Amino acid sequence: MGHVRKVPSKRQAVVDDDTKLNLLLALEENPITPARQLARDSNLNHKTVLKILKYEKKRTYKMQAVQELLEDDPDRRVEFCDLLMTCIDQNQLSLEWIVFSDEATFTINGAHLFLNSGCDADVLQMSIYRAVSGEPSHENSKILTTKS
User: Fold this and answer.
1) For residue range 60-102, what is the model confidence (pLDDT) as tens digits?
2) CA separation for the pair 2, 9 (Å, rounded)
3) pTM for this entry
4) How far is 35 from 45, CA to CA, in rounded Å?
5) How far apart (Å, rounded) are the C-alpha atoms in residues 56 and 24?
6) Domain total for the chain?
7) Phi-psi region of 43 (alpha: psi -120 to 50; beta: other; left: phi over 0)
8) Tens of pLDDT along 42-56?
9) Are residues 49 and 77 in the same domain?
10) Are residues 49 and 82 part of one domain?
11) What domain of life (predicted)?
């Protein structure tokens, strides 16, 4: 005759109210603390922390880098493109001298991270102006004035 092994039941983790309160207070102090960090700090299992957060209707979010678009951004972009096209049409600027990159990273609050970007858009626009007008070049305008 065969025997059927009893499947162990999934027990609810026993967490006292003080531990839950400390966990929620730590989350209130620093809302971007990852759930795994909260688990390490409170000596709890990661899944237990997630269950507590779910029970308290708190959500965990992964931070995503986005660019905040301001109201006057389209106008500035069009102005920049017009300036660039005018310089190219007048043979004052060659496309071979410009490095285009979309590697700039912006945070959710609009702060610009200079991780992979060569320079800020305003600096680039001023650099083009200086390169065309023959003024002393700015450090970031080397992209525009030197041909590789």
Assistant:
1) 777 666 777 788 888 888 888 898 888 888 888 777 777 665 5
2) 21
3) 0.39
4) 10
5) 9
6) 2
7) left
8) 899 999 999 999 998
9) no
10) no
11) Eukaryota
